[in-house]
Amino acid sequence: MGIPMDDDIHAPTVASGPSSGGALRDVSKLSMSDLMQEKERIEAELSALSSVLNSHGVTMNSSLTTFDGFPRDDIDIAQVRTTRVRIIHLRNDHKEVMAHLEKHLHDHFARLQSAPDATSTNGTSALSSVPNSATNNYIADAGALGTPFARVNSVEPASPAHQAGLKTGDLIRGFGSVHWLNHERLSKVAEAVQQNEGRPLSVKVARKNESGSGTTELDLQLTPRRNWGGRGLLGCHLVPL
């Protein structure tokens, strides 16, 4: 008689709760700065755990059994299952942190709107005259125009990135709807590229001036596509900051 097997051996055996074993602090009491640090900590661990799965040649959905239902002997099944469970917990933690970050941003823009004399850093009118219904757009704009989250490490000649005007050394502030708050160590950039093949994406860039002082803000249109003569859909290499 064969060894009884679970119907789905690669399914997590530990229920995914709202936090990872109590390791996450009470994020509702954290400041914006602390939330950003927690976000980076979680994303760094998720990246490391993803590397563990990659080292086994599996993903979150790869089967851990052979075609006839027996455990695969080419991987450490126990480690893979433990890693998957941890990833699920961390993803839940990440969602909670991002929800509180969004709340902080909503509150921030609400304060700006209620301040009649509020101005931006360059002296122009702030957001006080814009309807509350556009708050979500403010959040996206603030993210895209906020802290750079990636640097262009290289650009291939004649590639979609080259044709869009990207240059080595450019700092990415926004990539479609992806920004410094939600890029998840650039994984969301990869998703945006895959989901928008053949369609232009707005890429917000900060580029150092040739004089060496100051930067220029650019809004480029980049269309991911295949068959341009090189690898990938962009033809450029981004590294997280």
TrEMBL record:
Keywords assigned by UniProt, alphabetized: Chaperone
GO BP of this protein: proteasome regulatory particle assembly
Keyword set includes Chaperone: yes
SUPFAM superfamilies per record: PDZ domain-like
InterPro entries attached to this UniProt entry: Nas2_N (IPR040815), PDZ_6 (IPR041489), PDZ_sf (IPR036034), PSMD9 (IPR035269)
Stretches of the chain forming a coiled coil according to its record: none
Gene3D superfamilies: 2.30.42.10, 6.10.140.1710
GO CC entries: cytoplasm; nucleus
Domain Nas2 N-terminal: 33-110
Keyword Transferase listed: no
Family note: Belongs to the proteasome subunit p27 family.
Protein name (database record): Probable 26S proteasome regulatory subunit p27
Organism: Penicillium decumbens
